[in-house]
Amino acid sequence: MSEIDLETARKVAHLARIAVPQENLPALAQELSQILTFMEELNEVDVEGVEPMTSVTPMRLKRRKDGVTDGDIQARILSNAPDAREGFFAVPKVVE
Question: Gene3D superfamilies of this UniProt entry (predicted)?
Answer without folding.
Answer: Glu-tRNAGln amidotransferase C subunit, N-terminal domain
